[in-house]
Amino acid sequence: MIEMHDVWKVYPNGVEALRGIDVRIEQGEFCYVVGPSGAGKSTFIKLMYREEKPSSGVILINGVNVKRVRDWKIPYLRRKIGVVFQDFKLLPHLTAYENVAFAMEAIEAPRRKIRSRVEEVLELVGLADRMDALPSQLSGGEQQRVSIARAIVNNPGFLIADEPTGNLDPENSWDIMYLLEEINARGTTVVMATHNKEIVNTIRKRVIAIENGVIVRDEEQGEYGYED
Known about the structure:
The protein is built from seven helices and ten strands. By secondary structure, the protein is an alpha/beta fold. It has one domain: 3-Layer(aba) Sandwich (Rossmann fold), CATH 3.40.50.300. The strands form two sheets. The protein has a six-stranded mixed β-sheet, sandwiched between helices. Strands 2-1-4-5 form a four-stranded antiparallel β-sheet, covered by helices on one side. It comes from Planifilum fulgidum. Residues 2-227 form the ABC transporter domain. GO terms for molecular function: ATP binding; ATP hydrolysis activity; transmembrane transporter activity.
C-alpha cells in the first residue's frame, strides 16, 4: 500500500527533515507516527499525499512512484487518499452536508450518488441530524467528524490523520479515535501522527517513532515512549 525506500527530505535552508527512511505499511493497517516536535513527523505525513516531494529515494503508493507523478495529475492521486487535519480545514460558508459533498463534486460524481453517499457517511460519523449546520454552529468534535466524513466520502484506500485530536478535549478525542478504528475495521488503512500518549498506550496499534529525521522504532502494538 505505502512504501518508502531510502527517502531523504532536505529543505532549501539545508535542514534535513528526513534521512534514509525505509518503511512499508500494508493495506488495512493502523499506524501511529510519533516523536518529539521537529522530529520529521509532519514531513513524513506530507510526503504521502505529495504535499512535499522527497529530495531523493522512492515513495510508492499502490505501486505508483509519487515523485514521478506530474503536478497536473496530483489531484487524481489524492482522490485515493483521505486527509484529516488538526484544524479541520472546513469551508466556513458551507454546511456540513455541502462540505462533504464538495469532495464528490470535485470528481464530478452524479448528483444522485452524491446525495446518498454524503448522507451515508454523515450517518457513520454521527452527524445525520447536523448536516444543515455551518461549521460555526458545530463544536470542535463535530467539525472534526465532518472533516473525517469529507476525507472518506470517496472511499479512499487509506486515510492520513495529522494530529486529528490535537484541538479536541479528551472526550471528543476518544470519540474521534473510536471513529477512526471503525473506519479502519471497514478496510481503510489509517496512518495517524499524534502526540496523544494516552491514546497510543490504550488503543494499541503499530507505532512508528521518528527522531531527528530517522525511524528509531517500528513496533507492533507499541507504546508512545515519550514524556508529555
